[in-house]
Design goal:
The complex is a heterodimer. Chain A is mostly loops. Chain A has 1 helix and 1 strand. In chain A, 19% of the residues are buried. The longest helix of chain B has 21 residues. Chain B contains 16 helices and 16 strands. Chain B has a domain of 83 residues. The relative contact order of chain B is 0.12. In chain B, strand 10, helix 10 and strand 11 form a beta-alpha-beta unit. Chain B is an alpha/beta fold. In chain B, helix 1 packs across helix 3 and helix 2 packs across helix 3. Classes of the chains: A little secondary structure, B alpha/beta.
Chain lengths: 31, 462
């Protein structure tokens, strides 16, 4: 195997700019 | 911050603040583990000693791994810094709207489940049913306090909401009438023990309920031990055929079968598999939260067994999915390619700010788990939220507000955990329910491993 494989994930740091719209649902977490 | 762990043949490295997930071989696993505390020379020396029996581990090979680590770090995918702490303290200034109400339409129940947090539906108070007038005012309150938000969630809850079914139907009709006037979209949901399900309820639920939560603890002997009727009889045989009929009529979507496990069934995966074998595919099984002196309470000595069970569940889910008969487990449904933004991850569930519970008398509480505790009364559906100090307390109670979460790798996945559990465990909503934290971290490790396996990533060999 390659010694380090990286999964395709959403970078949380990028959501500082693109997130925060408040449209999410409440969530009694992980549109 | 990173979190490294080994599970099911994978060596996994989670980069906490970027959300990146890496699967690495043993050499890279060890190098990443030493990277922040040792020099390159120290790492090289240690690796050459540890892997002396492996001819492919050379100084050049170690240097290449170190180079890869540095590239990932430069790309913000490994050892990413925490840039979010400052944002967390600005949450008090955020404008929030109310998005969801938990409508306690019935503070009474036709079962007497031993572990019920609502004390058999009464919430430490008197039996009561919500009137249409109170429910109507609650919907008006939600519309008036939801700002420009279009989708509004209303969960019919109890106790057992089917014991007040006529009012539920009236409230749905009123909501449908009002949503046209105010450009809203009500998504009604129902949480039921199933005893009173019949064809009429099923037909109405399929037409009007966005989702239904069906309470079933798994195997008959497990379910019937704690979920009995008021006459002391088990309820399994009453509800399972009804649940199967409901789920089939909904096309297998828009439902959860949700169980609770206790000290009596720490082998709870067998109950989940039983649910799957009954034909249910949308599943959840939650650890009981109770006073430690209850006979069914989970204890520290149960933890190793529970951790093992979560691993068994994850591996079996992978196997069944590959075999074409998979099922979902609520806590393993993570979206690493998408997933919530950082603001949501910090702020958590929304209790006390975006989500409120309404009692049969119209009193407001931060969520269903605070109902009945006078300290947490927040107002009522006529006057609105009058305890604004409490609302501010919940608004700023986030993943960065709890000192115990400071060094936890999972805090951007649990958002600091459940305020009610923390309160009941420590007396403060800013505490933590450590037992729940340990189980949550294990579930997250398993959930990430499933994502890795389903992405077809190669195993790490050792």
């Amino acid at each position: 195997m390659t010694r380090i494989q990286t999964l395709d994930t959403r970078n949380l740091a990028e959501t500082v700019q693109h997130g925060g719209c408040g449209e999410c649902q409440t969530s009694c977490v992980a549109e | 911050m990173i979190h490294r762990y080994k599970l099911n043949g994978y060596n996994i490295v989670l980069d906490v603040y970027s959300g990146s997930v890496h699967v690495v071989d043993p050499l890279a696993y060890d190098i990443i583990g030493m990277y922040e505390t040792s020099s390159k020379e120290e790492i090289t020396k240690a690796m050459l000693e540890k892997y002396a029996h492996q001819p492919d581990v050379t100084p050049q090979e170690i240097a290449e791994v170190l180079d890869s680590v540095e590239q990932l770090k430069a790309a913000g995918k490994l050892f990413a810094p925490d840039k979010y702490e400052g944002m967390a303290f600005d949450f008090k200034n955020r404008n929030t709207v109310i998005k969801a109400l938990c409508m306690h339409v019935a503070h009474t129940c036709n079962l007497t489940c031993d572990y019920c947090f609502a004390s058999q539906g009464k919430y430490q108070g008197e039996r009561a049913l919500m009137s249409f007038e109170v429910g109507k005012q609650a919907l008006d309150f939600l519309i008036a306090n939801s700002g420009s938000r279009k989708n509004l969630e209303v969960d019919f809850f109890g106790g057992e909401p089917l014991m007040n079914w006529e009012v539920v139907k009236q409230l749905v009709a009123y909501g449908r009438e009002q949503e046209k006037i105010h450009n809203k979209n009500f998504r009604f949901t129902l949480t039921t023990n199933g005893v009173l399900l019949n064809d009429e309820v099923i037909e109405f639920a399929n037409k009007e309920m966005h989702n239904v939560v069906l309470s079933l603890d798994g195997r008959k002997e497990v379910h019937d031990r704690l979920r009995r009727t008021v006459n002391g009889k088990g309820s399994y045989d009453i509800i399972v055929p009804k649940f199967q009929k409901l789920v089939e009529s909904r096309g297998g979507k828009g439902y959860y079968v949700r169980g609770t496990f206790t000290k009596d069934n720490v082998d709870f995966t067998n109950d989940i598999f039983h649910m799957a074998d009954l034909g249910f595919t949308e599943l959840s099984m939650e650890p009981v939260v109770s006073a430690p002196d209850e006979p069914y309470a989970l204890t520290e000595e149960d933890l190793p067994k529970l951790f093992e069970q979560y691993e068994i569940l994850a591996k079996e889910m992978i196997r069944r999915k590959e075999a074409g008969n998979g099922f979902t487990f609520y806590h393993y449904m993570i979206d690493l390619q998408g997933g919530p933004c950082i603001y949501k991850r910090i702020s958590g569930c929304g209790s006390g700010t975006e989500y409120l519970a309404v009692t049969p008398w119209g009193e407001l509480f931060p969520c269903h788990q605070f109902v009945g505790d006078p300290k947490y009364s927040m107002g009522d559906v006529w006057r609105g939220v009058t305890n604004t100090e409490m609302r501010e307390e919940f608004k700023t109670c986030n993943a960065y507000a709890r000192p115990d979460c400071k060094d936890c790798w999972a805090r951007l996945y649990c958002s600091g955990g459940c305020a009610a559990n923390a309160y009941h465990a420590t007396g403060s909503i800013r505490g933590i329910y450590d037992y729940g934290c340990q189980l949550f971290r294990k579930r997250m490790e398993c959930a990430i491993m499933i994502q890795v396996a389903e992405a077809g990533m190669a195993k790490s060999s050792t």
